Model the fold of this input.
Amino acid sequence: MLAPFVMAKTNLIPNFQAYIMAGVGSQAQETFLKIEKIAKKEISSFTGLTDIFYNETVKSSANTDGFTHNPASFQYKLYNGAALNSLNGSYDNNRSKRSNLNVYDESGFAPEELFVTSLPFITQDSNFKLGGDIDISLEPKQFPNQAIFASSASGTDTYFYKVYKDYAKKMFIGDNRYFVADINAEIVINATFNGKKYPVGLLKQEVIDDAMRKNKEKALREYYNKFSTEGGENQAVKRSVIIRNSEVRLPLLYNNTGNKIALAYDPARSYDNSITMVGEIYWDETVGYKMRICNGVSFVDIAKEKKTPMRTPEQIAHLKQMILDYNGTHSADYENISALLIDSGAGGGGVNIADDFMEDWTDSKGILHKGLIDKKESSDYISKFPNATDKIKLMNPKKYKTEMFDALVEMLGLDLISFTEEYDMKGYLTLFDNEEIEYEDEKKNKNKSVTSKEKIHKLSFDEELALKNIDLAKEEVVNIYRYDNPNGGRRYALSPEKESKMHDDRAYCLAMLAWHLQQLRREKLLNRSNEEYNFQFFYN
Done:
């Protein structure tokens, strides 16, 4: 719906400038590409298209179809002087522009900073003119500048919700400058054409039902436009923080980066989820250690009617294989494993599971590997298993839970942990790679330019599962409350209305990973302080 609207505006109004923006640059680029594909008749479901728009794009030797893909801004220009640009997610660079139309795609999942920096583009009155002795009152009226906010529902603490609520009220009292359309899945499924129900709908009910079973909160937002109610001051992590720290990228199913990997395991056997979340640790030259949440695995026995966790030995076997995958090829035992963090609470039997890791073990290929141990919590067994590597960290909830969630709030607040973008269930991700191309201009001179190439990555079953588990982890995190005790201290738990409706195991694993990242950063800081102190002492 956005694409034909923007195409019509730019094609019919001379010197019209439009911008497409989103929380991440790739989303804005994908919307731009939708317009390009419509113009080139590359969308099979769009029938009866003409060449009118395509023939109006300004072409050149460097730009043979009129659509440029500069990584900084995708653009097309028309012969009437109109233009469309996409803007990337670098908000501070998106200032001091003038626009007739701001299009915000997936605006429910964009940070407030995007709107603060870009809405001033359209503040100048389109009828304003200055210069000479012209009587401005005799000039024809211009189309007013517009802002379009398009998105599925998000949380009630987002800028999009504020706009949705405010504009709806203004529309209800008769202000014709504002219009709000709530188009949910029921409207799409039962769409009509010339008064009759369209024979083939864009959506199928079974797709929606499947989404409701897997992640009800997300499905209600995506298909029924139900905004998620946030927890106010008691909410430990706001949804806006999660959105700000989400990016379009593939999950990591094995280590092909050479970075260190941390795994957080919350075991369960009968009544709860048994979850492992995976974090990739990398070094940022500006802020130091950061983490990407790159996978989530649920050890569920799909053969059981109630889908309860698989037997403990099977969980341990799967976890050992994950450790090998994330250690990477051509690496010594656990060389790229930063830590295996295990919830040692009584319910999941974490201490007993850690005991099974102490012995040397043989993988499915017959290769012998060292055992793993927590030398602090299992110090009595060091002499019995001298070959075991100190890579396990047993995390007792009574001792660590508050500290872990404090770390999660801190690390997310500092933008040190990132997630994959919310998965839209399409079965693929649209990624962009920058590429240098060479071309000849009118004078036969050779020139080079950088263009951003679209790459469609079809997701494997495991990749889709990883993205869904990460989404579930984000959903659990935003439903964790912080409760301050009257006598001092605090505790973290699910919000009261969600305690009986959802689990918190993935959030707990994320908290363990955040705690580990915090410890690495503190260790690095202490080492740097000691080095500076020793140097100062030596110098004096």
